[in-house]
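User: Hi! I'm working on a homework problem where we have to compare a predicted structure to a textbook description. Could you give me the structure for the chain below?
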Amino acid sequence: MDSLLKTPKKPIYWIPKFLPMKKLALYWQILIAFGLAILFGIFLKSWVPYVSWMGDLFLKALKMIIIPLIFTSMVSGITQIGDAKNLGRLGIKTFAYFIGTTLLALFTGLVLVNMIKPGVGAELGFQQTPVGIASQNQTFGSILMEMVPENIVKAMVEGQMLPIIFFSLLLGFFITKTQKSHRSTLTGFFNALFEAVMKLTLFIIRFTPFGIFGIIAKTVSEQPDLVELATRLGLYMTVVILGLFIHAAIWLPLLIKFIGKANPFKHFRAMSEPLITAFSTSSSSATLPLTMYAVENKSGVSNTISSFTLPLGATINMNGTALYELIAALFIAQAYGIDLTFGQQMIVVLTGLLAAVGSAGIPMAGLVMMSIVLTSVGLPIEGIGLILAVDRFLDMFRTTVNVWGDTCGAVIIAKSEGEQLLV
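Assistant: Happy to help. Predicted structure tokens:
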């Protein structure tokens, strides 16, 4: 009997030693899967149907989690930051800065991607008609009208992102207005539900390498010109990095100079350590302790300002991510030969803004948020496979811009509150 209770000498689920997948970081797994998928699609085209199902299944799982994740994350997030109203003027300034700079980043990306058109004219072999897309003659007013759903359940069934986001924001806000006992119960419920949905999302994301293998193998096997594909992908990366550079090196320093009345070059030097950390880790949350220390001790921002603006910024102020999502979405549309009208591009802008606020603090969150942005205008989310191979590389740049934007906001708000800074 005692022998049955002993720990078995060998694990029940055996993993071959030559498969180091559990030891590799997820982005390395994705890169390896991407490389193998290219070779598979080139040399084993007849076998592609036997592996493409992995991509189809992964995309179905991704679609399954989009609405539950955005709904629970936004309601939970708003209930957590609802007390910001008690800070009065500081809260208003902070949110005004976040929204203003995110819109500035989005319109920078919008101009660049429409000027350079990295996906237009590419012979990539993509032929798919967008589904669920709104009227071709939409106005900005009609976009705003569509944000208010007649039936939220119907909006969820049909995957209408803007109404879902709008309803989530309202629900989260008014939960903070209920009496204390109800607010505590509802906040606890949505926090628990969000945690459960995040666990499910992380489970799905673990299968990203297999999904990417199936998607890329199928994509490569259908490509008439792989050189053209690589060229267009390189041009796409250039547009993203250029957009991030313009936002980080021009717009934000100008805001510091003329609104914050501070020296942007001194502030940049003071932020060198957290920015390098953000670039190497691709995590604004992991960089937060260093960011707060540098902002307080090297730029001279008070703890009152930094302790509110920086944690909040790490959660909802995603300038770089919003710019990246917009350029990626329009690049995918161009690669598929889909001509988005001005109204449809405005939907992408609004969804990018709201999705940045509700972005979950999880690995590969950009993958989920990209699905939301694409779904908002009916673009095929299969296009994610086209850009995911370079996502990790671009993530380093956009995370750095996210952190830089947070620190600039702290300086500008501190100066507007009359604080004496060191920069």
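For your comparison, note the following. The CA atoms of residues 98 and 317 lie 6 Å apart. The chain has one domain: 24-416. Good luck with the assignment!
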